Automatic annotation (TrEMBL):
Organism taxonomic ancestry: Bacteria, Pseudomonadati, Pseudomonadota, Betaproteobacteria, Burkholderiales
Organism: Pseudaquabacterium pictum
Transmembrane region(s): 39-58, 64-87, 112-140, 160-187, 208-241
Keyword Transmembrane: yes
InterPro entries hit by this protein: DUF2189
Protein name from the UniProt record: DUF2189 domain-containing protein
Keyword set, alphabetical order: Membrane, Transmembrane, Transmembrane helix
């Protein structure tokens, strides 16, 4: 059976072996990048925190919508960090790394725009699914975080919260597997979207435990940032973005392949 061109293209990228706890090293290196070049990252984190605050204000009496929107944010966050991947790449090469480098990464680029749209569709799908579950099956109206906690999370007579979590995981797992190294790869090398996604899946298949740990760290730190009234996201969001660049660099061998300028 003839293999697809994207699969053949994906195999041009070697997957490096990593130990289980390597994700902790990515966090350490991501923090170092943030400290070395803080302005782009902090502005990025501030923009996300302000967007989250605006969303909270607009949907303050519709927590069933807000819960889906905040968890959907986790699906689209990787593409929002494109500029910070560029900053980490510049730091790695010893080049100038400042706000202009981050902004330049956002120039119109077909492949990144396609991937961003796909993630946006996935995020929107989860928001609608989450809202439908909570409004359609909750035992009482959910309008506040306390309502969500009492009616959905702590309701012993309904499996709604478990179903909500399972549905979220069902959507988030393939999105994570498709994007964990795909966006930094698209930024860094001349590769098609499908080849980048297939490469990302190869990484997850080769390292299920380290990737599960990485996913758990991303989730836990993002939830921590949200739990601090979004203030923590100002630092945590860029920290994780820089760390994600180092995950890509550790996991993928790109030697001898054409680099994007």
């Amino acid at each position: 059976m003839r293999e697809s061109p994207a699969l053949i293209e994906s195999r041009a990228f070697g997957v490096r072996h990593i130990p289980l706890l390597r994700p902790l090293g990515w966090l350490a290196r991501g923090w170092r990048d943030l400290v070395r070049c803080p302005l782009p990252g902090l502005l990025h984190g501030l923009a996300l925190a302000l967007f989250g605050a605006a969303l909270a204000v607009l949907a303050h009496d519709h927590f069933w919508l807000l819960s889906g929107a905040f968890t959907g944010f986790l699906l689209v966050a990787p593409v929002l960090a494109t500029g910070l991947y560029a900053v980490s790449r510049a730091l790695e090469k010893g080049q100038r790394a400042d706000l202009s480098v981050a902004l330049a990464a956002w120039k119109p680029e077909g492949r990144l725009m396609v991937f961003g749209l796909l993630l946006a569709f996935a995020g929107t799908g989860w928001v609608l699914t989450s809202a439908s579950l909570v409004t359609g099956f909750a035992a009482a109206p959910v309008t506040t975080p306390l309502d969500f906690l009492k009616v959905v999370v702590l309701n012993d007579h309904s499996p709604l919260f478990q179903i909500w979590l399972l549905m979220g995981a069902f959507l988030a797992a393939p999105v994570f597997a498709s994007s964990v190294v795909a966006i930094p790869l698209l930024l860094d090398r001349q590769v098609s979207v499908l080849a980048a996604v297939l490469t990302s899946w190869r990484v997850v298949q080769a390292h299920p435990l380290p990737m599960a740990l990485w996913a758990a760290l991303l989730m836990a730190l993002t939830v921590l940032g949200m739990a601090t009234a979004l203030v923590g996201l100002v630092v945590i969001a860029p920290w994780l973005a820089h760390a994600s660049w180092h995950a890509y660099r550790d996991l993928i061998s790109t030697s001898g392949l054409e680099e994007r300028p």
